[in-house]
C-alpha cells in the first residue's frame, strides 16, 4: 500500500467514523452532533483501526482476522481514550456504567460491536473504497497534500484550543 493510499483510507475512514458517531448520537439522543476531539469532521481512531486491520489482517486465516477485528479496534479505542484523558483531562466517552469495562474507555459490549463492524468493513466496505481509490489515484496524488494540510490544520488548531481551555480551567480553580 502506498502512502497516498494510506492517507486516502485514513481520511475516508476518519470521516466515516465522524458520520457513524453523529448518526449514533442522532439515533440515541436526537441530535446529529457529538463532541469529538477534532473540530472538523474527522474521528482519527476510525482511521487508525482500519489501517491496522488492513496492514495486519491481509492474508491471514479467517480465525486470525476475526481476532484482529475484536482486538485492534478495542486497543485503539482504549489507547485513544487513555491519551485524550491524559492530555486534555476529558473523557469523550465513558463505558463505566457497562458491565465488563476497563477504566470507562472500553467495554465488552462495544468491543463486540467493533468486531462486527470491522468484519463488515473488511468484507464489504473496504473493497468498494479500494475500487474508488483505484479509479482516482492519479487525481488523489495531486490533491492529497491539500487534504493532509486541512487535517493537520484542524489537528493543530484543536490542540491549541483545547490546551488553552485546560489552562483557563486551571486558572479559574
Automatic annotation (TrEMBL):
**Does Transmembrane helix appear among the keywords?**
yes
User: Is Membrane there in the keyword field?
Assistant: yes
**Transmembrane region positions?**
6-28, 63-85, 106-126, 132-157
Q: Which residues form a coiled coil?
A: none
Keywords in alphabetical order: Membrane, Transmembrane, Transmembrane helix
Q: InterPro entries per the record?
A: CmpB_TMEM229 (IPR010540)
* Protein name in the entry: Membrane protein
Origin species, per record, is Paenibacillus segetis
